[in-house]
């Protein structure tokens, strides 16, 4: 008798342990599917494959979230409601499977018009099955409530649904197999192999076996094998979901593979992993509470705080290891780029530095105001002004600062300034290199001016010593900013090249979903948006918006969206390009009434006044209450936004043409 009791206690303990493990694993899968769903919709939303995969993840999330809820229900009625809600994910999984596989097959330029009819049939059956499971008794019947195992009895049509489920998943698997066969490059075939190997996992893990096995579950102790099997299957589902998400992350993304891997790993470690650790810690709190004899709130607070802090600390400590795994031979270049990011001097940094230096200089010389201007091409741009509110207007009122700078260069007497318009002026020259070398004629970086305290400059030796360091400091800051602008220009040229390379890599093996042209035509006649000079072409076309060679001879006339606008422009390409540019600018217009002072209106106002109205730079700067240097910087940003909108318009035009071609394809097949 004692042996039987011991065996019963052991079975009871094993059952509780397996139940706890299954609930914890269901919580992990719920968090994992939700996190991967959020990642997919955030970074790959424009891609059809990613959107269909998101539907698949949503079904998985519904099923496992219901499993977690079922562990907490206390009545058969509550269990019945959650079990029927769980069937929403089960019934819609076949259509999610087939839609996802069809989107993958479509990326290989395979005609899928006939398969879309199958998709609609599967969609209809899935929708009817979901409605029946939620509100009817045809698929599933009454609930059997035997905690920790609860399930619904099989209805008269459950066998037909099981056959439909297997058939839909099999057809979906065939589509993925067909897509893998059509891949031409090793990398695409490898990723498709990963997807093929993990494809069945969600279906195997979600299918309601308990409904079919209901006649065999009633005996005591028979739940142990089911819990063991569920634990093994759900563990495999979690691994395969991550593998599928890794494969889908590359669809429709033009960034390098290294960036995709790093972004996915960073998101996974900082999001799902931390959330999973917190959930597991919360579920172990009752055990820790009993062992330590402490209040639940104290244990819960301590465990959650410890998990979050320690996980972030571990991620920071292991960052070098992650970089080694992700970047490998590119580690030195990535480290240099990160160092560059830390050392870059932003516009706000420069302005703050110049203001601090100028304030210190004015305090030293006992003068009330001063300014710093930089040389940009043939112009002098006012960078920063300190002093009374009317100082900026006093500086802008003088129109011959360039002549004064030339005179200061010719009449330079060491650190002694020249007097002009009530200011003392010093030219800012490029400082000597670290090794002491300097160009015979140092380039001019700008001009430093302070309010003249006397007509003839009189400076003490102490003032001259400090003044020399101040001038060198300001000149060094302007030089650094000049060098950084060169770096930015180079980066702006590199990024489109990378995107173009990634696009060509995708066009060679198969046609992308967003393209309505054959691969060969897309290679021979690429859209101007893929050129590294695209933004420069946009700037040139805007500068001659109302006519000029930069508009009439612009490569932007080859944009497909411009070709689509020819009918509205009476067949005139230049007029069509002007219409498209105007549309792009209007897309940047905020809602509401025009406002010259609102930040959200700044970019649109600059585009409107600079290119459409043709106003001068100084007039626009005065109306917007910003400096000319700020205006030039904001203008570059505004032109970049116009280029972005044009890119979106071109891609939307490709999607529209692709849809028309698919309609024509389906019409041709119906006639055949």
Biggest β-sheet description: 5 strands, antiparallel
Instruction: Assign the CATH topology of the largest domain.
Output: Rhopdopsin 7-helix transmembrane proteins
Number of separate helices: 27
**Helix- and strand-based class?**
alpha+beta
Overall strand count: 7
Radius of gyration: 34 Å
What is the topology, as strand order, of the major beta sheet? 4-3-7-6-5
* N/C terminus separation: 79 Å
Q: Overall 3D geometry?
A: elongated
Total number of domains = 4
Q: Please identify which CATH superfamily of the largest domain we are dealing with.
A: Rhodopsin 7-helix transmembrane proteins
Mean pLDDT: 79
CATH architecture designation of the largest domain? Up-down Bundle
């Amino acid at each position: 008798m004692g042996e039987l009791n011991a065996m019963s206690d052991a079975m009871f303990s094993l059952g509780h342990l397996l139940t706890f493990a299954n609930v914890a694993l269901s919580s992990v899968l719920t968090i994992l599917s939700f996190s991967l769903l959020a990642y997919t919709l955030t970074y790959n939303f424009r891609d059809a494959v990613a959107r269909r995969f998101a539907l698949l993840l949503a079904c998985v999330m519904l099923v496992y979230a219901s499993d977690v809820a079922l562990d907490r229900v206390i009545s058969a009625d509550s269990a019945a409601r959650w079990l029927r809600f769980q069937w929403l994910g089960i019934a819609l999984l076949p259509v999610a499977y087939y839609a996802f596989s069809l989107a993958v097959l479509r990326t290989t330029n395979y005609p899928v018009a006939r398969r879309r009819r199958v998709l609609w049939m599967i969609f209809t059956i899935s929708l009817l099955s979901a409605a029946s499971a939620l509100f009817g008794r045809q698929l599933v019947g009454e609930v059997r409530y035997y905690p920790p195992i609860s399930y619904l009895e099989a209805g008269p049509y459950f066998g037909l649904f099981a056959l439909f489920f297997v058939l839909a998943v099999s057809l979906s698997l065939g589509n993925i197999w067909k897509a893998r066969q059509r891949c031409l490059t090793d990398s695409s075939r490898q990723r498709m192999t990963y997807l093929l190997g993990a494809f069945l996992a969600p279906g195997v893990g979600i299918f309601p076996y308990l409904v079919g096995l209901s006649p065999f579950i009633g005996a005591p102790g028979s739940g142990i094998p089911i819990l063991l099997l569920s634990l093994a299957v759900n563990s495999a589902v979690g691994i395969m979901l991550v593998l599928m998400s890794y494969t889908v992350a590359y669809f429709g993304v033009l960034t390098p593979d290294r960036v995709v891997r790093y972004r996915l790993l960073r998101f996974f470690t900082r999001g799902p992993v931390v959330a999973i650790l917190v959930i597991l810690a919360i579920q172990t709190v009752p055990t820790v509470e009993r062992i330590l004899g402490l209040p639940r709130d104290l244990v819960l607070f301590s465990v959650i705080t410890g998990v979050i802090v320690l996980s972030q600390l571990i991620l920071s400590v292991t960052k070098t290891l992650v970089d080694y795994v992700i970047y490998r031979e590119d580690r030195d270049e990535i480290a240099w780029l990160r160092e560059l990011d830390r050392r870059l001097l932003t516009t706000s940094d420069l302005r703050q530095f110049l203001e601090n230096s100028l304030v210190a200089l004015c305090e030293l010389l006992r003068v009330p105001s001063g300014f710093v201007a930089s040389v940009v091409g043939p112009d002098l741009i006012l960078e920063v002004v300190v002093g009374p509110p009317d100082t900026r207007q006093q500086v802008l009122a003088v129109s011959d600062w360039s002549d004064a700078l030339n005179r200061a260069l010719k009449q330079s007497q060491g650190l002694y300034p020249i007097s002009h318009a009530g200011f003392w002026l010093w030219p800012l020259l490029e400082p000597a290199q670290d090794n002491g070398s300097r160009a015979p004629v140092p380039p001019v970086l700008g001009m430093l001016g302070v309010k003249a305290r006397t007509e003839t400059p009189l400076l003490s030796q102490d003032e001259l010593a400090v003044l020399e360091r101040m001038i060198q400091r300001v000149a060094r800051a302007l030089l650094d900013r000049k060098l950084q602008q060169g770096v930015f220009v180079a980066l702006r040229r590199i990024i489109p090249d990378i995107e173009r390379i990634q696009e060509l890599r995708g066009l060679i093996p198969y046609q992308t979903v967003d393209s309505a042209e054959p691969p060969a035509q897309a290679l021979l006649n690429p859209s101007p948006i893929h050129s590294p000079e695209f933004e420069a072409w946009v700037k040139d076309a805007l500068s001659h918006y109302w006519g000029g060679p930069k508009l009439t001879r612009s490569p932007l006339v080859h944009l497909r969206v411009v070709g689509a606008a020819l009918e509205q422009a009476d067949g005139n390409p230049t007029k069509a390009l002007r219409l498209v540019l105007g549309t792009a600018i209007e897309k940047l217009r905020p809602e509401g009434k025009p406002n010259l002072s609102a930040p959200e209106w700044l970019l649109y106002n600059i585009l409107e006044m600079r290119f459409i109205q043709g106003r001068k730079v100084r007039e626009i700067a005065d109306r917007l209450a910003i400096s000319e240097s700020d205006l030039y910087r904001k203008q570059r940003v505004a032109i970049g936004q116009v280029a972005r909108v044009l890119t979106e318009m071109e891609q939307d035009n490709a999607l529209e043409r692709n849809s028309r071609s698919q309609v024509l394809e389906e019409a041709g097949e119906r006639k055949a």
